[in-house]
Specification:
By secondary structure, the protein is an alpha+beta fold. The chain has 8 helices and 24 strands. The strands form 4 sheets. Strands 10, 13, 14, 15, 16, 17, 18, 20, 21, 22, 23 and 24 form a 12-stranded mixed sheet that branches. The N and C termini lie close together (3 Å).
């Protein structure tokens, strides 16, 4: 959920989308500057042909993968006047050891970047889809806990939070995906096919492009940057068009299997939309002390065979990725000194061998001159992405 883009763009686009189903409060939303909206993908027609249900108030119990957020997700200018609001995605259902159930999403969706207090209402749809109307009747959960985001020099592994579901108001099924497994895929691989259901770009398919990605993410809703560093993230590219966009934050990324398993939690993306970034799901669940709620059972034999085939076809095993990551880590200061560098990750080159990709805001002659051809024999490639922003 890009605050710089999302807070303004989604409010500006609501009337065109026709998704505000609850009464409008006059004068509640300031007219923002228009910005680019996410590129639609062919798969998203499943939503548009159905009237974009993921952005509307749905009958309880709601499925997940839909619009939602904290009831206090409002944005104010320096004078204290309302300038907009934002929504993210209520991604999936998890439970603790006592079988208490929660909605899983991002800190910046449910906890408003560390500011929410336990018990605050989580509403569906999110405020950006009801013209910033704060309606307690839209409650589906209450904010419970978060993993604190570290801004500045600290390093983050996840952008995650949970909210206790209201009994009978939430289903563990994901809209247009259905049931998922309670197990997870803890060993994502380059080239793995994945899917997600999100508030903005709907149901999309993609492939994992980068592993062990270290990035700097802008969370600001103003011209002044608010930066957070993340390490060991997953980057996904869309199979057709963008995989994610502003408002998709909190979406659960799952395998493309008959019984999908959780892979990662979507939270950010490149400004040009070419890459979507996500926290490895095993790290998310471990830090929150919860497990996935699922009702189908994946075929273990089939999954193992698929993983072996994937490694053989792409040519980048977990051991090779780990070796390339170690090389990248030893030279990270050098790589991040490339002008405009915002991140780096481990990819596979055209020959199926490991490569280090450096992400830069803009490709320039200075960038090209500063980029080494390789480090310790591992090829280095520079990709222009624009800045990386919270979705």
């Amino acid at each position: 959920m890009t605050f710089k883009t999302m807070a303004a763009t989604l409010v500006a686009c609501m009337l065109a989308m026709g998704v505000a189903l609850t009464p409008q409060r006059a004068g509640a939303v300031a007219t923002p500057t228009t910005t680019a909206t996410p590129t639609a993908t062919p798969t998203a027609t499943v939503c548009s042909s159905s009237g974009n249900p993921q952005q509307t108030a749905l009958t309880r119990p709601i499925p997940l993968g839909i619009s939602g957020g904290n009831i206090h997700s409002l944005l104010f200018d320096k004078k204290g006047e309302l300038k907009g609001c934002f929504s993210g995605t209520l991604g999936s259902m998890v439970q603790d050891s006592a079988n208490n159930q929660y909605i899983l999403s991002n800190n910046h969706v449910l906890a408003d970047q560390n500011t929410a207090k336990p018990g605050q209402l989580i509403v569906q749809p999110g405020l950006a889809d009801v013209q910033c109307l704060q309606a307690p009747s839209n409650e589906v959960a209450t904010f419970s806990s978060k993993i604190k985001l570290k801004f500045g020099s600290g390093k983050n592994n996840v952008d995650a939070a949970i909210a206790a579901v209201q009994p009978g108001d939430v289903s563990p099924q994901i809209l247009f995906i259905g049931d998922i497994a309670s197990s997870v895929d803890a060993t994502p691989a380059i080239g793995m096919s994945v899917q997600k259901m999100g508030r903005t770009t709907c149901l999309t398919n993609g492939v994992i492009a980068l592993l062990d990605t270290n990035i700097t993410v802008n969370y600001s809703d103003t011209m002044k940057p608010k930066l957070a560093k993340f390490v060991n993230q997953i980057a996904i590219t869309g199979s057709k068009g963008n995989f994610g966009g502003p408002g998709d934050s909190g979406s659960l990324i799952v395998t493309q299997a008959e019984c999908p398993e959780a892979v990662a939690l979507l939270f950010a993306g490149s400004a040009d939309g070419s890459l979507t970034f996500a926290n490895p799901i095993s790290e998310v669940l471990s830090k929150l002390g919860v497990s996935m709620v699922g009702s189908c059972t994946p075929s273990l034999a089939s999954d193992a065979a698929d993983a072996d085939a994937l490694a053989a076809n792409i040519g980048v095993s977990a051991e090779v990725v780990a070796s390339a990551k170690a090389v990248r880590d030893r030279h990270e200061d050098q790589l991040m000194s490339i002008p405009g560098a915002v991140g780096s990750g481990i990819a596979a080159d055209q020959s199926g061998q490991p490569a280090i990709e450096v992400l830069v805001e803009k490709m320039t002659p200075q960038v090209q001159a500063a980029t080494p051809r390789d480090v310790e024999g591992t090829p280095v490639k520079v990709i222009e992405t624009g800045e990386i922003v919270a979705y």
